[in-house]
């Protein structure tokens, strides 16, 4: 049985894991996506809402203008060209396999949040399982359904504790007035501030940066507490009000850190 509040998609995934199935579980609906299984363990997860492995691989080698076109195509569902280019890049001798694996695991966790973390009432689409179907990337490490769901719940908990009005799908903007004379930002923070025009959401910013949606949303939360960004109807929060948050253990910690370069 699945825990109360989790969607029936999770229940279907647990059933397939118990059968040690290999293939792809396609989930329809707004919170849909694809979960790839290898002998009952999760090999990868994709969501149309989050930048996948292809986006994370291609963004560093793309110009800003060219990337904007790629993002528009991928978010419209036209991802074949980007996937082909990313597959070629992932297999190139100049791309370390360890680097690809770090990006893959980050993209997997980022996609799992909307696909498997949506409330039970939100995931209403149908599901279908295609035996034998595999992700385009080279096989990497797998993780158990239980460990993946633990990471999903951890992220749901973190998002629930963010500053009021900070959500992946709500717009943010630069503060009109800063509560201090100077502020020092990292390159990643500055990129987020630069793109926060009052119309873009953390999800939009994540796509344009080629970063994970979860990590970008957490970064926006930190910038709101610094008083650099604000949300509609919100006020800049003085730095002293920023809460301290304990970092819960994550199955990704062995290969990636969501508070590092924020790429996942």
Average pLDDT rating: 84
**Strand element count:** 6
Strand content: 5-15%
- What series of H and E elements makes up the topology? HEEEHHHHEHEHHHE
- Structural class by SSE content: alpha+beta
The strand line-up of the biggest sheet is 3-2-1-4
Q: How does this structure look, described?
A:
There is one protein chain. The protein is an alpha+beta fold. It has two domains: 8-160, no CATH class; 173-241. Helix content is 41%, strand content 10%. The protein has helices spanning 8-18, 53-58, 64-75, 80-90, 97-117, 145-160, 187-195, 202-209, 213-226, and strands spanning 23-27, 33-38, 41-46, 127-131, 173-174, 229-230. Strands 3-2-1-4 form a four-stranded antiparallel β-sheet. The chain has a two-stranded antiparallel sheet with strand order 5-6. Strand 2 and strand 3 form a beta hairpin. Helix 5 packs across helix 6 and helix 8 packs across helix 9 (213-226).
Question: What's the quick description here?
Answer:
The protein is an alpha+beta fold and 264 residues long. The chain has nine helices and six strands; from the N terminus they run αβββααααβαβαααβ.
């Amino acid at each position: 049985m699945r825990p109360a509040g989790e969607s029936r998609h999770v229940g279907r995934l647990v059933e397939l894991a118990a059968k040690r199935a290999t293939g792809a579980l396609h989930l329809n609906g707004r919170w849909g996506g694809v979960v790839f299984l290898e002998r009952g363990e999760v090999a990868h997860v994709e969501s149309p809402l989050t930048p996948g492995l292809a986006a994370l691989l291609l963004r560093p080698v793309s110009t800003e203008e060219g990337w904007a076109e790629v993002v528009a195509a991928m978010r419209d569902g036209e991802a074949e060209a980007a996937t082909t280019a990313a597959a070629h890049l992932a297999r190139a001798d100049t791309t370390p396999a360890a680097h690809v694996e770090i990006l893959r695991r980050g993209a997997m966790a980022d996609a799992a949040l909307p696909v498997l973390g949506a409330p039970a009432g939100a995931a209403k689409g149908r599901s279908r399982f295609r035996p034998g179907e595999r992700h385009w990337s080279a096989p990497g490490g797998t993780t158990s359904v239980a460990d993946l769901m633990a990471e999903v719940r951890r992220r749901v908990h973190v998002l629930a504790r963010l500053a009021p009005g900070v959500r992946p799908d709500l717009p943010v903007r630069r503060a009109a007035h800063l509560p201090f004379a100077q502020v020092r930002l990292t390159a990643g923070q500055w990129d987020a501030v630069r793109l926060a025009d009052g119309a873009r959401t953390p999800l939009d910013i994540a796509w344009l940066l080629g970063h994970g949606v979860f990590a970008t949303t957490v970064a926006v939360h930190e910038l709101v507490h610094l008083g650099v960004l604000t949300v509609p109807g919100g006020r800049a929060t003085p730095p002293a009000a920023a809460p301290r948050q304990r970092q819960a253990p994550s199955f990704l910690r062995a290969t990636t850190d969501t508070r590092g370069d924020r790429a996942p």
